[in-house]
Amino acid sequence: MLVVIGVVLAISSPSLRGFFASRGTADAAATMLSLTKYARTEAVSRGRPCRLNIDTQSGAYWLTVQDAGRYVPLDNEMGQRFQLPEGAAVDVRSDSPAASFPFHRPA
Predict the structure, then answer these.
(1) pLDDT class for 43, splitting at 50, 70, 90?
(2) Residues 73-93 pLDDT 10s
(3) Beta bridge partners of 70
C-alpha cells in the first residue's frame, strides 16, 4: 500500500507543482489589484497621493503615501513589500505611454 501511495505521489508531483505555481501568480495578481484599490481609498481618506511602487529588478511591489513632499511607506500591513513569484510577469499599462512597461521576475 505504501508503494502505491509513493507511486501516485511521484506521478502527480509535476502537476501539483504547476498548480501551486499558477496559484502563486493568481495570488500576486489579486494582491496587486487589492493594493491599487486600497491606494485609491487611502488617497481619498488622507487627502494625499498614494503610489504603487514597482521594483522591476527584484520583482517587489509596495505602496507609499506622500508626506511632506516625499513618499514614505504606509504605516500598516499594506505598506509592506510584496514579491512576485519566480517566473511571473506583469504588463503594467496606463493611459499615459510613459507609465506602461513590462514587469517580471526572472526564474
Answers:
(1) confident
(2) 888 888 899 988 887 777 666
(3) 67
3-state SS string for the chain: CHHHHHHHHHHHHHHHHHHHHHHHHHHHHHHHHHHHHHHHHHHHHHCCCEEEEEECCCCEEEEEEEECCEEEECCCHHHCCEECCCCCEEEECCCCHHHCEEEECCC
Query: Would you give the distance in Å from CA 69 to the centre of its chain?
Result: 26
pTM across the whole model: 0.65
**Cell 504588463, located at residue:** 91
Ordered domains of the chain (ranges, CATH): 2-104 (3.55.40)
- The one-character DSSP state at 79 is G
